[in-house]
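Researcher: I'm preparing a figure for a lab meeting and need a structural model of a single chain. I don't have an experimental structure, so a prediction will have to do for now. The sequence is pasted below. Please return the structure as tokens so I can convert it later.
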Amino acid sequence: MSKATGARQRIIAAARNSILEKGFGATSIDELIAEAEITKSGFFYHFKDKGELARVLLEEYIEEEEVLFDQIFDQGKDLADDPLQAFLISLKLLARMVEDLPTGHPGCLIATYCYQERLFDREVRDLNRKAVLAWRARFRATLDEIAERYPPKEEIDLDALADMVSTVLEGGIVMSKALAKPRVLSEQVLLFRNLLKAMFLPEAQLSRPAASA
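Model: Understood. Here is the structure written out token by token.
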């Protein structure tokens, strides 16, 4: 890694930590250059302004989340051919992963940017919105497969159900921080998993060993 690349990554790391901890508005360039051990001119060498830094942070975060989701939900598909069982396995893997984070999940930049959207330009707001819609599309595709094989017991908006993956994760993060109990996030994921089982599995299959996979 070159010296310039190292400085850029230190800025990004410092900015992400600060924004998740106290928000974008409260994160100053002076604070970031002190944390990254560079000069102010060094900051502006890498980013023309704080807005560009926000966009780069968001792009990196979205890419990381996509890779993470690919790994977890592809693993479920590798372990089960049935779309519902594959999704249930993946949710359990996700719950285990967040439970293993020693100090809890650090937070979600997507949500943080939404909370403070007036601080960002249209490009950043549009990028944020596209990320949320992309996650909806990802999980909606899986739910379409599940619903085709296991018609839901009640009429349900599958877009809204797909959005629940994001809302459960973000809500779990908020609750775990508010209660100072990191385990709350994994518990919320597992509750959502149980909801899907109850919604799609026939009554006769709910007590079978396979349904607890």
